[in-house]
Amino acid sequence: MLIRSEAPADLVRLDRWWRDVLASPHQADQLHQWREAGGISLSVLATDDMGEILGHIAVIDAETENNTQEIALWHSPDANLVMPLLEEAESILFELGYTELKITPSEQAERAEFAPLQSNDTWWHKRLAAATV
To answer: How far apart are CA 124 and CA 66, in angstroms?
Structure first.
C-alpha cells in the first residue's frame, strides 16, 4: 500500500471511487464543489500496487477562531486505512503550519486521539504536533 498526495491524474478515478465503490454520489459531488471552489487544503490517498484507490482523506478549510487555524477532516469509511491516512495528513499539515484539526466524532477519531472541547461539541478536535517517529 502507498499513501500519497492526490495528483491531477487521480481526479476521475477518485470521483468514480466515491460514486461507485462507496456508493456516495452526494459526497463525490461535495468533493467536486470544494475542489472547484479551492476549498481543499490537502487530499491524501491510499492506493494498492496497481494504483487502485483504497482510501481517501480530504482536508477542507474551515472557519477559524481566535486566529487559530482549524480544518475539517473528511475521510473514507475504511476503518483499516483511517489511521495511516490520518497520520500522513497530520504530518503534512503540521509541516504546512496548521495547528489543529477538527473532525466529526467516530470510533476512528477517538482512537486517533480526537476529543470534544466541550461536552456539547458537535466536532472533535486534535492539536497537531511534530511526528515522533
So the answer is: 17
